[in-house]
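Module 6 notes. Inverse folding takes a fixed backbone as the condition and produces residue identities as the prediction. Think of it as a translation problem where the source language is geometry and the target language is the twenty amino acids. Below is one complete input and output pair. Work through it position by position during the lab.
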């Protein structure tokens, strides 16, 4: 994603000092509540000045039900291009319904106009921020490798509201999140023959080139990792012709405060190594770098928003391939921490690249560390595609992340990370195995990482279920960029 690509992002603005009929930008989208207890939808539409309103309501059968949408063309002198969109019972509105509402509005208008106006008057103020975020998420397309490009023309959304919880600070944050989340989606959707470890390192360097006053980047190659004793990491990367990289990005390094450190798993393609995965859906293993893509997206969003907070991002980038040089099941490696690991399954590789990276970043003396990884299929079995798994022994940090997830509707669910599970990692030949048996796989993976994080506050986000969608809607979601940016914004404001 180049600086030019930033011109394609949707800009958000706010109108509070005009009356609705004075708005000149068309089309206008009116959000209409479902009528109940004898209320009249016509009263909500009066300001739209629709000709023969009662007749139109009769013929259109518009009732304000959630996601019910009708274009009303050339029926109003004030609004020649008008859409009325039902939002249902406002007491029943939630983040999921807002996302579907946003998707419907964007789909109906993204090829129609460069700018649209959305009247927020009937939407509860507490939902304005989430709705605006959902609109930015809906206006995304990935067509880099298509000969016929998408024809999206929508560039601006202006919100109309006499009273709103939105302000200029929130709009700036929303646009920064949009750019960061789209960057993450773009990286995640890029195929593995293009996006490999060196590619992610180059993207980090390009980002630093865009924001030289805010961002410093350092890249470790395999020789430097070997000199540091990062043998668990190298046990993964040595099977590939593409060499591994650890990429370190420091934002606001001049800040005196200790940094928040974000560590992202960046396995750019995961075949499973010698413990080869089945062929079905293996193409989706290009998404196994979405943890690293998330960190890059957050770093872009930080640079765009200029939040006053010190953050370090670390990308653990490798490709997991079978070859004559690949690690065998049963091999034993010594990690950077000095602990030894028996590699029982080479498809449990994410924890191997992460454990050495988690050891390395201790030199930054972090305030806290959050790792983000598409780590286990077990987490997908437990939580599906709705919630990311949150593992941490730190109650305060966990609650901060849960709260940020609710605010951004990028939610997490806290899972146990207890010493009771640690014995499942025991090995007769090394300090630990890299898997813990058939039960509680997401938990034992977190317990493995915990052994390398004893010296600082730590949380682990397993995003294997939320980082991408499969099927007809296949593609990277950009989660949990909104969660982490909300978390950092909350900390910056405090």
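Target side of the pair, the amino acids:
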């Amino acid at each position: 994603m180049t600086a030019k690509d930033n011109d394609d992002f949707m800009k958000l603005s706010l109108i509070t000092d005009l009356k609705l009929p004075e708005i000149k930008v068309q089309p206008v989208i009116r959000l209409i509540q479902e009528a109940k207890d004898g209320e009249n939808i016509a009263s909500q539409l009066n300001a739209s000045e629709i000709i023969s309103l009662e007749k139109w309501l009769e013929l259109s059968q518009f009732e304000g039900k959630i996601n019910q949408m009708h274009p009303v063309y050339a029926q109003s002198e004030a609004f020649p291009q008008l859409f009325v969109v039902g939002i249902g019972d406002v007491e029943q509105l939630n983040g999921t319904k807002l996302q579907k509402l946003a998707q419907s509005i964007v789909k109906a208008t993204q090829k129609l106009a460069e700018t649209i106006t959305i009247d927020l008057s009937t939407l509860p103020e507490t939902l304005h921020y989430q709705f605006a975020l959902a609109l930015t998420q809906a206006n995304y397309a990935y067509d880099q490798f298509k000969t016929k490009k998408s024809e999206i023309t929508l560039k601006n959304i202006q919100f109309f509201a006499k009273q709103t919880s939105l302000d200029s600070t929130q709009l700036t944050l929303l646009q920064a999140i949009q750019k960061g989340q789209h960057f993450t989606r773009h990286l995640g959707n890029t195929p593995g023959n293009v996006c490999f470890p060196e590619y992610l390192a180059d993207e980090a360097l390009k980002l630093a080139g865009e924001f030289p006053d805010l961002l410093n980047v350092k890249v470790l190659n395999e020789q430097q990792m070997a000199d540091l004793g990062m043998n668990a990491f190298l046990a993964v990367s040595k099977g590939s012709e593409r060499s591994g990289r650890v990429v370190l990005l420091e934002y606001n390094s001049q800040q005196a405060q200790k940094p928040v450190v974000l560590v992202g798993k960046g396995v750019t393609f995961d075949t499973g190594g010698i413990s080869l995965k089945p062929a079905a859906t293996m193409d989706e293993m290009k998404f196994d770098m979405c943890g690293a893509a998330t960190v890059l997206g957050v770093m872009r969003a930080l640079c765009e928003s200029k939040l006053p907070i010190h953050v370090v991002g670390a990308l653990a980038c490798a490709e997991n391939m079978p070859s004559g040089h690949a690690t065998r099941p049963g091999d034993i490696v010594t990690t950077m921490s000095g602990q030894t690991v028996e590699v029982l399954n080479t498809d449990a590789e994410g924890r191997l690249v992460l454990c050495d990276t988690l050891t390395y970043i201790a030199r930054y003396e972090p305030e806290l560390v959050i790792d983000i990884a598409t780590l286990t299929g077990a987490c997908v079995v437990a939580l599906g595609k709705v919630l990311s798994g949150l593992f941490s022994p730190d109650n305060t940090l966990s609650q901060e992340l849960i709260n940020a997830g609710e605010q951004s509707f990028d939610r997490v669910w806290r899972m146990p990370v207890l010493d009771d599970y640690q014995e499942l990692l025991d090995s007769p030949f090394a300090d630990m195995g890299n898997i813990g048996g058939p039960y509680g796989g997401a938990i034992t993976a977190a317990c493995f990482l915990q052994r390398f994080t004893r010296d600082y506050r730590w949380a682990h986000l397993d995003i294997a279920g939320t980082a991408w969608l499969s099927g007809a809607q296949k593609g990277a979601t950009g989660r949990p960029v909104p969660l982490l940016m909300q978390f950092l914004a909350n900390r910056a404001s405090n």
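Reference fact for the lab report: The mean pLDDT is 95.
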